[in-house]
Design goal:
The chain is of the alpha+beta class and about 550 residues long. It contains twelve helices and 26 strands. β9, α6 and β10 form a beta-alpha-beta unit. GO terms for molecular function: lipid kinase activity.
Length: about 550
């Protein structure tokens, strides 16, 4: 059993421990002068007296004196080359006693080996270490009887480390056993001081939990898996359980966020998109940006979680504008089949999520028709890169692109996808846009032209296989910085399947709910746009907690992109 220390007060962790414990060698700062004196004193003693003394001392004393004394200058240099020592002591790790050294950047330990009769160590000491930048918590370790909630026998301290296991980060505990109260107290306080000094670690987070996501187990996931990690890392969490769509967005837009170091969302892709849009829109409001005109957005000041791991990763974000007015921020968008499918699914919210998605896909495929539109884009090779102004925390464009720089295509398209991130999901384990990355400064434009239903279905199926989904003659891909899509006709989908008293009339009721508006699927949310939509990429506009996030996605994750 472990006892959680009180936040910001390391000494309080020891206030309940009044028992007399068997102490090992007390800790002491590293001192070469002290060790030199010990060596000199022992050399003055007769050899027989030294051997008698070695047989009579206790094991901890033997380790403390002889292990330290026999180290030469080369061994000392091995420790101090990386960083200056802060404190040193003896701990049992596993079943062996170890010489443990703490610096401001790492904890290093090596087993204490007995000497042979010739005075040589039997084997070379194997040194191990953990970087403190990967340690997110330290805790007092005690043994308690059943039902005991406080006190208990002190066993030592435990470090909690973020350890990379394959593409993911896992929490890993390292136990340093020592029953000395003074010994462990000094180590505990020093470790807490070092961990709290890391400036890039969050101390206070705003947490949004969507109780309807993850099969309605989102709050239990937060309570059982996330909250204990926050407590170990001494992170204060202000939790809001969202009650409706747009709840998190309204809080981010209207509340004072000055006391937070980041925002964490526990929910599906819709919840993440809503919070990301809220963070970015709030940043524009705070910077005085006019969202009803074309503008260069500023970067969001608060990172967006995933679970904090001491790392930050910048992410590219898209802005979606119509007639010069900002509609929202997001990461991906689909027009045509992807938008029509989501619009039909939204009309059947009474169905279970999985069932209504399958229903919408089948019905939309049965009534598959192309969109007549004008598609324009700015290739990355023609675009000046954006640079970050470190003072104003905003991206500046060197030159605005002339109209001649745009490449324009007019025709029929079954689906048009614009992706700033790979969009890994259960339907596409390699991603809907496998050739893009989280922060490579470009978007993937994937345009599926007019084709037969069977060929289009083959194209969709390949997203879930190892075959190239873009090898069809009617599919075109481009690496772009901006996309402009203008629908030229609304008649092609006028006979969509719609619901009318439980029956479907293919000639009377259109699928779109707003007259004259075209459905877009933006991060799994339905966005109805009356005319042309402009999509621009803004490099590294948002920061996420985590590292190699796109590689950490798992294939079984559910998605609502289609």
């Amino acid at each position: 059993m472990f006892e959680s220390p009180l936040k910001s007060n390391a000494r309080n962790a020891w206030s309940e421990s009044q028992e007399e414990l068997s102490e090992t060698e007390p800790v002491s700062p590293v001192s070469k002068g002290t060790r030199g004196k010990k060596k000199k004193k022992r050399r003055q003693q007769p050899q027989q007296q030294q051997q008698t003394e070695k047989r009579s001392v206790s094991a901890p004393q033997l380790c403390a004196e002889e292990s330290f004394d026999r180290e030469d200058e080369q061994s000392e240099k091995r420790y101090t080359d990386y960083d200056e020592p802060i404190v040193r002591g003896i701990f049992q790790i596993g079943k062996k006693s170890h010489d443990v050294l703490l610096t401001s950047m790492r904890v290093t330990w090596s087993p204490i080996q007995p000497e042979t009769p010739t005075g040589q160590s039997e084997t070379l000491r194997r040194t191990e270490y953990v970087e403190l930048k990967d340690v997110f918590g330290v805790k007092v370790k005690r043994r308690r009887s059943a039902g005991q909630e406080t006190g208990g026998t002190l066993l030592g301290i435990t470090l909690f480390q973020c350890k990379k296991k394959g593409p993911k980060l896992k929490d890993h505990a390292i136990h340093f056993n020592n029953m000395s109260v003074d010994h462990c107290e000094i180590w505990f306080k020093k470790l807490k001081e070092i961990l709290s000094s890391f400036q890039n670690r969050p101390k206070s987070l705003k947490v949004f939990v969507n109780p309807a996501s993850h099969k309605k187990e989102a709050y239990q996931i937060y309570r059982d898996d996330v909250a204990p990690l926050f407590q170990l890392a001494d992170i204060k969490a202000d939790v809001t359980i969202t009650e409706r769509k747009g709840h998190a967005f309204s809080i981010l837009k209207e509340s004072n966020l000055d006391g937070y170091d980041g925002v964490v969302v526990v929910g599906g892709d819709g919840s993440v998109a809503e919070v990301a849009h809220g963070l970015l829109l709030r940043a524009q409001m705070d910077a005085g940006r006019d969202t009803d005109s074309m503008f260069t957005p500023v970067r969001a000041t608060l990172p967006l979680g995933l679970i904090p791991a001491g790392h930050h990763q910048e992410v590219d974000v898209c802005s979606f504008s119509c007639l010069g007015r900002l509609l929202r921020f997001g990461f991906s968008a689909m027009f045509g089949f992807g938008g029509r499918t989501l619009a039909l699914a939204e009309r059947h919210r009474w169905m279970p999520p999985g069932q209504r998605r399958e229903f919408a896909v089948i019905k939309t495929l049965a009534n598959l028709k192309p969109e007549d539109c004008e598609l324009s884009y700015l290739p990355v090779k023609k675009v000046q890169t954006e640079t970050l102004d470190p003072v104003k925390n905003e991206y500046l464009k060197d030159n605005m692109e002339e109209e001649e720089s745009w490449t324009t295509t007019r025709g029929l398209f079954l689906n048009v996808s614009i992706m700033a991130i790979p969009c890994l999901c259960s339907m596409a384990p390699r991603g809907l846009a496998p050739n893009t990355r989280l922060n490579n400064g470009s978007m993937a434009l994937i345009a599926a032209g007019n084709a037969s239903r069977s060929e289009f279905i083959k194209h969709l199926k390949r997203y879930n296989s190892v075959n190239n989904q873009f090898s069809f003659s009617f599919v075109e891909t481009q690496t772009v910085w901006a996309v402009r899509l203008r629908p030229r006709s609304q008649s092609s989908w006028s006979d969509d399947i719609a619901e009318d008293n439980g029956e479907y009339d293919s000639k009377n009721t259109p699928i779109i709910s707003s007259e004259g508006a075209y459905p877009w699927n933006v991060d799994g949310d339905l966005l109805e746009v009356p005319s042309e939509l402009l999509i621009r990429l803004h490099p590294q506009l948002l920061t996420l907690f985590g590292v190699d996030i796109e590689e950490a996605e798992e294939a079984h994750i559910k998605c609502s992109c289609i």
